[in-house]
Each structure stands twice: as C-alpha cells, then as structure tokens.
C-alpha cells in the first residue's frame, strides 16, 4: 500500500482524486487545500509520498524549506512546464513534476514504484479464510489449530482473526485473559482503522509468533464492524503478519464476502453428512463463480470416515477435496474445555496431526521448501 497525502487546490484536486481513487495500491491519508496543514499532518503520519499542487506554493515561501527536508518523495503537479515550475520543483526537492493533463497516465506508474509490497524479495503474505455454509462442522477447530500450527511450523508472524462476528468463540476456546476485541477497533464507526489501535487490540500468544484478534463479546456489536473495516484490518495485518487465518461465519454476508475477497486460500469445510454435503456443494458453486481461480477454493472434509464414504463425497462435490481431517474423538471437546488448542493439549491426536500436516503443506506451497517432514500416513 502506498500512503499518500494530497495538497491541492481546484481543479488539480478533482483530477487527482479521480485518478487516485482508481488505484487499489494507494491509500489517501489526507487531502487538503493548505500546504501548512499538509506539512503539519505529514509530521504525524508515516507517508510514502506527498503530492503538491504548484499553485499552492506561491503563498507558502516559508514552508518550502520544510518541504525540502521531508523524508518521503514529493511530486509536484504543475499547470505549465516552464522555468518557474522547474525552479519550484527544485526548491522543494520534488522527485518529479507532472502536468495536469498527464496526471492519469504518469502518476499511477510513479506511485506504483513506491509500493514496497511489490518489491522483489519482499516476504509474501497469505490470508487463509475458513468458511462453511453449515454451522458446527469444525470451522473454528480448524482455524484455531491451523493458526497455532502455522505459527509453530513457519516460525513467522501469524494472526488468527475471529470474523464470526456474532457468535465467535475463539476467545472462550483459547484465551482466558482480559478481552480486547475487534469491537474496540471500530467503535464510533471510524473511517479508518488506526494502526496503533489495531496493534493494541492484538493478543499475543505466549511462546509463539501468534496474535489473536477476537470477535465482539456480544452479537449486538457485530454490525459495528463494516466491510471496509474488515478490508482495512486485513490489509494492515498483511504488512505485519505473514499468515492471517480468518474464522468466518456461515453467512454469505457483506462482511464475510470482503474477507473472502481478500483471502488467498478459502477453505470450505463440510462433514460427511448428506444434507451438509449438499448445502456445501451448493455454496461452492456460488463461490466458484466469484472466485474462479481453482487454487483459491479448497474443500476440507472434517470427521472423514465417519459418514458418507469418500467416493460418494467426491461425486457430490463440484471441486476435488483438498484435505481430509479424521475424527479426533472426544479430545477436541476436552481441549476446548481446557481453553487450549488440540495441537497443544494432545499433539498426538489424529486430528491434531492432520491439521499440522495441512499447515506444513501450506508452508511448503507458499515458501517453497518444507522445513519439517509431512507425515503422509495420517493425511
Ligand atoms: N474432527 C473432529 N473430531 C471430533 N470433534 C470435532 C472435530 N471437529 C470438530 N469437532 C467438535 O465439534 C464441535 C463443533 O466444532 P466447531 O466449533 O469447530 O465448529 P464450527 O463450524 O466452528 O461451529 P459454529 O458454526 O458454531 O461456529 C466442537 O465441539 C468441536 O470440538
Ligand atoms: Mg465456529
């Protein structure tokens, strides 16, 4: 994401707004018609660039030195490319001067070159959503144990986000401390989720590079969390965490869909019961139209071997099953009652081993080579 502050008068502001709003990698931190305000705001925010309308500079002589010392690149928008415009660009140490009529063509590639996330060698970030059209199929069990396993296997910053906003139960399942939740982040319906607030809402798990972001404690607060909040939270987490696992609710709500849009992998969970399988198959057909990339949608059969046989499941499902998870017997329920994930309480349990193997396969897929051996016997 390229964080940009715009300081322009009319009509440059209109053209800039029109162009910048179409660029998905640009975040407009603020837009102002006053250079003084821009300079003051720049000292409060971490910016990747500032765009300045030349016409505002004529009344701001005293501020040109301050602009020249800013640590981020300045881009000057000029009316006519003459000697005066060049002199002003040099005075504020602008890295480029762009005329009004070339804003749409020259500005996007220039800003893209500041996008650190697209630099070669940058660590890639992955969002993994866990969804099902049916409740009670093991979404939370998979999301929690997968997040713990990814953090342990990859040794990379991982975040588990409870996006089952009405009835999220990750808090009671694995955390017994004071509850800070996603609600505190979006209270007052802010236009932007503040990064430092997000950092404060994350609950660090002892001994692992793992953070939790919990769902509101009361279902009535679920609607406070709007789709744009979810998009912002997930994109901010992308810059601080390599893996983000989202436990989603069973609804095809706007909030769920914004998380699904952002997910690189969407795990769709079913259990081997005919009604569940048929419902999940129907939802998969809808999801296939939204997300045609076959690498994104991954079917997971939980409690495999306990109901409808695998051959029949393959006939019903519109996509191939990517992961089969066995029954863990009574251990998953017991572990939830202790407030710790199964992979911690009973790592030798068949379900725990299976989820850990899924984590190892994902790390192998995303990071190239496996640092741990996958136990094929229990897949
Ligand atoms: N493979 C399994 N073996 C044994 N028990 C399991 C297994 N998977 C899940 N469970 C148990 O089934 C119950 C439901 O699981 P979970 O809460 O993970 O489902 P969910 O899809 O998140 O439900 P909800 O829709 O209510 O959020 C829990 O008690 C969990 O411990
Ligand atoms: Mg759940």
From TrEMBL:
GO terms for biological process: negative regulation of cell division. Transmembrane segments: none annotated. InterPro entries: AAA_dom, P-loop_NTPase, ParA/MinD_ATPase. Residues 126-290 form the AAA domain. One of its GO terms (molecular function) is ATP hydrolysis activity. Pfam families: AAA_31. Gene3D superfamilies: P-loop containing nucleotide triphosphate hydrolases. GO terms for cellular component: cytoplasmic side of plasma membrane; cytosol. It comes from the Bacteria. This is AAA domain-containing protein. It comes from Sulfobacillus benefaciens.
């Amino acid at each position: 994401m390229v964080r940009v502050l715009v300081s322009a008068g009319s009509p440059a502001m209109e053209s800039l707004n029109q162009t910048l709003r179409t660029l998905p990698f640009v975040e407009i931190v603020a837009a102002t018609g006053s250079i003084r305000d821009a300079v003051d705001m720049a000292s409060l925010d971490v910016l990747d660039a500032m765009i300045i309308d030349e016409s505002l500079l004529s009344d701001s002589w005293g501020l040109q030195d301050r602009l020249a010392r800013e640590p981020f690149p300045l881009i000057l928008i000029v009316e006519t490319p003459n000697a005066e415009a060049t002199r002003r660009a040099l005075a504020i140490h602008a890295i480029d001067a762009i005329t009004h009529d070339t804003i749409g063509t020259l500005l996007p590639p220039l800003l893209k070159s500041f996008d650190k996330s697209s630099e070669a060698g940058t660590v890639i970030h992955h969002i993994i959503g866990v969804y099902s059209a049916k409740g009670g199929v093991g979404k939370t069990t998979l999301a929690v144990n997968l997040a713990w396993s990814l953090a342990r296997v990859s040794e990379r910053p991982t975040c588990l986000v409870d996006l089952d906003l009405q009835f999220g139960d990750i808090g009671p399942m694995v955390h017994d401390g004071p509850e800070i939740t996603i609600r505190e982040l979006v209270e007052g319906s802010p236009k932007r989720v503040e990064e430092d607030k997000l950092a404060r809402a994350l609950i660090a798990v002892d001994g692992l590079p793992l953070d939790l972001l919990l769902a509101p404690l009361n279902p009535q607060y679920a609607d406070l969390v709007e789709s744009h909040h979810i998009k912002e939270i997930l994109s901010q987490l992308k810059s601080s965490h390599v893996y983000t696992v989202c436990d989603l609710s069973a609804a095809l709500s706007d909030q769920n869909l914004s998380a699904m849009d952002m997910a690189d992998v969407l795990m769709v969970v079913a259990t081997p019961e005919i009604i569940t399988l048929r419902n999940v198959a129907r939802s998969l057909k809808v999801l296939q139209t939204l997300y045609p990339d076959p690498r994104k949608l991954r079917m997971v059969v939980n409690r495999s071997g306990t109901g409808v046989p695998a051959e029949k499941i393959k006939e019903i499902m519109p996509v191939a099953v990517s992961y089969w998870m066995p029954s863990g017997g009574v251990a998953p329920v017991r572990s939830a009652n202790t407030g710790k994930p199964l992979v911690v309480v009973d790592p030798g349990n068949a379900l725990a081993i299976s989820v850990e193997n899924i984590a190892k396969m994902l790390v192998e897929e995303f990071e190239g080579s496996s640092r741990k051996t996958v136990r094929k016997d229990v897949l």
